[in-house]
Amino acid sequence: MKETTALVASLSLLEKAALLSGANTWQTRAIERAGIPAVWMADGPHGVRRQVGSADHLGINGSEPATCFPTAATVAGSWDDELAEEIGTALGREASSQGVGVLLGPGLNIKRSPLGGRSFEYFSEDPELSGRLAAAYVRGIQSEGVAATPKHFAVNSQELRRMVSDSVIDERTLREIYLTAFEIVVREASPWGIMSSYNLVNGAYAHENAHLLIDILRQEWGFSGAVVSDWGGSNDAVAAAAAGGTVEMPSPGFDSVRQIVAAVESGELSEADVDARAAEVIDLVRRVTAHPRASVDLDAHHALARRAAAESAVLLRNDDALLPLAGGTSVGLIGAFATVPRYQGAGSSLVNATRVPTLVDAVGASTLKLEGVAEGFRRDGIRDDELHREAVALACRAEVVVLALGLPEIAESEGLDRSTLQLPAEQVRLLREVRAANPRTVVVLSAGGVVETPWAEDAAALLHAYLGGQAGAEAIADVLTGAVEPGGRLAETMPLRLADTPTAGAFPSAGRTAEYREGPFVGYRYYETAEVPVAFPFGFGLGYTTFSYSELVADAEGVEVTVTNTGDRDGSDVAQLYVSRLGASGVTRPVRELKGYAKVRLAAGESRRLRIPFGPRTFRYFDAAANAWQVEAGEYEVAVGSHVRDLPVRATITREGATVSASVDLPAALPTTRVDDSTFAAMLGRALPDAAWGTGPLAENDPMDRLATAKSPLARAGFRLLDSRRRKAEAAGKPDLNILFLLNGPFRVISKMSGGLATRRLTAAVLTLVNGQTIRGLGRVIAAYFGGRRDEKATKKAFDAAATKRSI
Fold first, then answer.
1. What pLDDT does residue 802 have?
2. In angstroms, rounded to a whole number, what is the distance separating the alpha carbons of residues 297 and 274?
3. Is 786 helix (H, G, I), strand (E, B) or coil?
4. DSSP 3-state of 395
């Protein structure tokens, strides 16, 4: 854009460098004389979190009220691109109304393991589904003049030591699994921003990873927006500017500005790179300031949140068609989540909801008769026999029991991965006691991901409501009564047990590296190829009617299939297209992969002819040796059905392409055999990096939890204090997000998260003390602090010197 180029040329080096870091926790820097205003950013994967008063990045302090929509893991169950775009539009409108120009979301990292602590913020284990839904969110958000920033780019799979962990992954798996969803978003929705992740990817921090940010994101995919670091995720400002990282957040003061200026003046960094990054910031500002503030109908948004939660809920069991419940049915409502709902996860996405009806409220307002309410169990998992007795007594009086079970808050949080897939034992014990008293027991599950379900047969009906947002309880009542069809289908596999998952025993990694030895065999790609039994397969979900598939025809451009509602109620299903390579193949690959889907709503007895098109991703694989996408010549099976293990109609199609005689990228033993070191090195095409932390002095990119091994007794005492606070919070059932951030984070956050109170030099001084040189370290800390304050004042004075304003 010529105007942007001219404006960049008019700025001094200091001003351009200043644009590349935030002014405070949530705003970009303004340059008033050049007419460049500051822009507000806010978290917002499922609701706007614009903070008022004291600001933080972890959802601890208060924020303006906003609609809390269902989380991404919930909406993924809808398999409905149009619904996702509606939610995105509502998010953009609320952000605009609050003066927010950049909304930090949606999250679309692939669910490598169901233990991932932040999985509730992500859509799926499948990149096609994740990418399409995320693209719909982005289109909606940006239609309101607000920038979307899909996150976290890339290969961000675990919370443990998330700011220092190196994701070690082969190129083919990187491209096919962990980047494809982002590629879909960039190519199909043109986001104005992207958020880089905390972790390293193959040895380089994501915010300064030129392979990710320049080679792939900008040059291959054509992304022209701004790359925003995760909060505290910028490691080296100079390296980031050279590698395509646009702006680091939050404010590190002017420390990074001075580093960039010095690097340009010394010849270490090209000023052209600084110009390119400054232009990206200016273009972002232009885009989000070109629209007037929107107005919001909060009642309409609550209704949308309610509809989204209902259409995303997944019915997993419904013995003898117990559901839907007829009007007037006497219901005993049991469970701690019935009176205090779990409707979102903990962390930076925490929304100050405009209203939160409970399940008691919702059932009371429905056509059902509320027989009574019993708490049933304690949320902290401690045994309480009296609560159980009250629940069983209520179960005996009611016609039907609705038992609200779920994961406690401590189980699903930013900064903390799960340790188990099991429900708390006291909840399972209560289920079995209630079921014995009343076999007509409906379990409603509130959780941001999957759980083991060895108890499923004790539930006559099982509804996985996920985390349904502020209207989730009303949505549950809508589904129970049949006011809304349970249209959800699983966007992730529910395994029988944790030991069956492809990363069992290796997730999360506590070492310096997280090794993706399973390759592309993630989620159903693993279970289907290795023929592992599961509790509920990918794509599965029941409704209140039934569907059949027939007359599949495939041509060069796609497939056509007839879907018929064979029941006596109106309903919806998701026609899912899977592709498999037939015959001998030189490419090690999953036996089937999702390549398309269509949500279809049909009246009772209605049939419809659907077309699901092929696209550029349908038959491709990534050839790492050629550094290019290829199609292997040969026959492919295309199959359509209601889930990955129910594909009743199939056809064969021949595709032209490359002839591959032998696999050169992935070992043929995958996925049934865990690869050894030499095989993994062959997959990577290089020697394995050291996975150990080592025993030398602690450095700025070591995690702070390594204070436990520090030479300084004072440092070790500091660790014990932090760790005791962590354990106390977890015992109380509420994670201390500040402590988790510090323990998982590197020492460099001392300067990166201080807003200018500390510099990189001060971090180095602290490390001198931590590594056992107490007197010298204290001296350096004092000198670095006062020297840093002096440098900050001087740089700020120079930056503020120009005061003339002109219009952008």
1. 62
2. 42
3. helix
4. helix
Tokens of 303: 């209704």
The number of residues in the chain equals 808
Alpha carbon separation from 89 to 136, 239, 469 (Å, rounded):
9, 35, 17
For residue 674, what pLDDT is reported?
Answer: 85
Q: Are 226 and 281 in contact (CB under 8 A)?
A: yes
* Catalytic position from the list 80, 230, 478, 623: 230
Task: Note whether 494 and 445 are within 8 A (CB).
Answer: no
Kindly report the number of other CB atoms within 10 A of residue 320's CB atom.
9
Closest to 350 measured CA to CA, from 86, 655, 42:
42
Distances (CA, A) of 295 to 140, 285, 509: 16, 21, 46
Q: Which residue in 510, 101, 40 sits closest to 288, CA to CA?
A: 101
Q: Which two tokens stand for residue 696?
A: 């030398």
| Whole-number Cα distances in Å, 369 to 163, 216, 365, 398 | 51, 58, 9, 9
Tell me which residue of 485, 167, 85, 487 sits closest to 314, measured CA to CA: 487
For residue 483, give both structure tokens: 């006011």
Predicted TM-score (pTM) of this structure? 0.96
**Helix/strand/coil for 605:** coil
Q: What are phi and psi of 802, to 5 degrees?
A: -80, 130
The DSSP bridge pattern shows strands 314-318 and 461-464 to be antiparallel
* Cα gap 206→292, rounded to integer Å: 34
| Residue 507 DSSP one-character state | S
- CB of 493 closer than 8 Å to CB of 538: yes
Per-residue pLDDT, 738: 85
Closest residue by Cα to residue 251 from 624, 756, 714, 591: 756
3-class secondary-structure state, position 258: helix
**What span, in angstroms and rounded, lies between the C-alpha atoms of 641 and 649?**
7
Q: Which residue has tokens 């985390």?
A: 467
Return the structure tokens found at 360: 């008691």
* pLDDT confidence of residue 714: 87
* Number of helices followed by number of strands (H, E) in the chain: 24, 26
Tell me if the bond preceding 408 is cis, omega within 30° of 0: no
Cα(564)–Cα(297) distance, integer angstroms: 37
Which pLDDT belongs to residue 807? 41
- Strands in 200-201's sheet, in edge-to-edge order, are 204-205, 200-201, 166-168, 513-515
Local structure of 506: helix, strand or coil: coil
- Residue 458 designated active-site: no
The CA distances from residue 266 to 17, 262, 269, 723, in Å, are 15, 6, 8, 43
d(CA 561, CA 387): 52
Residues of the chain with pLDDT under 50: 803-804, 806-808
Give the DSSP letter string of 293-339.
PP---HHHHHHHHHHHHHHH-EEEEEGGG-PSPPTT-EEEEESHHHH
- What percent of the chain is helix, strand and coil (3-state, nearest 5)? 35, 20, 45
- Helix (H/G/I), strand (E/B), else coil: 800: helix
Closest CA to 118 of 199, 184, 185, 189: 199
- Chain centroid to CA 614: how far? 27
| Rounded distance between C-alpha atoms, residue 746 and residue 530, angstroms | 38
Q: Which amino acid, 607?
A: S
Interior angle at CA 529, CA 689 and CA 556, nearest 5: 105
The predicted pLDDT at position 134 comes to 98
Whole-number Å distance between alpha carbons of 291 and 277: 23
Q: Which residues 6+ apart lie within 8 Å of 141 measured at CB?
A: 88, 89, 91, 92, 95, 103, 147, 148
Angle of CA points 735, 740, 741, to nearest 5° = 130
Measure CA 51 to chain center. Answer: 21
Q: In which element (H, E) is residue 92 found?
A: helix 81-97
Q: What is the pLDDT of residue 73?
A: 98
**Tokens describing residue 282:** 């200016």
C-alpha pair distances (Å), 185 with each of 10, 136, 192, 249: 34, 8, 11, 23
Q: What is the DSSP string of 129-152?
A: HHHHHHHHHHHHHHTTT-EE--B-
